[in-house]
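Hi R.,

Here's the input for the magnesium ion complex you asked about:
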Amino acid sequence: MSEVIELRDVVKRYGDVVALDGVSLNVNAGEWVSIMGPSGSGKSTLLNLIAGLDTPTSGSILVAGEEVSAMDAETRAEFRRRRVGMVFQQFHLLPYLTALENVMLAQYIHSMADEKEALLALERVGMTHRANAEAAKLSGGEQQRVAIARALVNDPQLILADEPTGSLDAANEATVLELFRELAEEGRTLLVVTHNSEVAEAGDRVVRLHHGRVEDG
Ligand SMILES: Nc1ncnc2c1ncn2[C@@H]1O[C@H](COP(=O)(O)OP(=O)(O)OP(=O)(O)O)[C@@H](O)[C@H]1O
Ligand SMILES: [Mg+2]
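And here is the predicted structure with magnesium ion in place:
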């Protein structure tokens, strides 16, 4: 099923803080949308809500015609397992597991661990040579690439990536952008948060957030 995303008047408040202040946004299946905006403008909040990791204060979030916020916790977890690949801003790798084990753990959660497949995922981000290194001992850019590999193991139709190239050098950034282009060409929908205009322009369209609102134009 195509992963069309439709947000209508989405508000998210954390106490007094208005993280999202009435966001409406449509994303087509197979589209790669870049999300830009200053620190604190609501970018991570937006991805978390679409992934069903959190629920909006008000408004509607439809993914492939399903209202994410109306799902119970179990259904949301199942929705993520089946359809969403998430690259977190803070990576969230388990430090004492190796790169390979981190990817295999995600496979295990999604279905079944398969070392060959996990190695292939690491190969796509240029990380086979460090597959057996503990995550804690990897550089920031290496950890980021493992986090990207991990997000792809469930073959997700929807990829939500929060500054996935923030720690990468130019060569690895180019590799990841090429990978994202392939994923989009396969018909997957990508939402990619970035502060880097070069990365943003690699996508099909840029959406800018400011104080929790989408800027016009
Ligand atoms: N769990 C939370 N509890 C309270 N406030 C929060 C929470 N999460 C986010 N916020 C606040 O909501 C606003 C938006 O945060 P968000 O993390 O979405 O910003 P961002 O655009 O991703 O910023 P950055 O570029 O720094 O990652 C900020 O003011 C932040 O402090
Ligand atoms: Mg953020």
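One thing worth noting: The chain is about 35% helix and 25% strand.

Cheers,
M.
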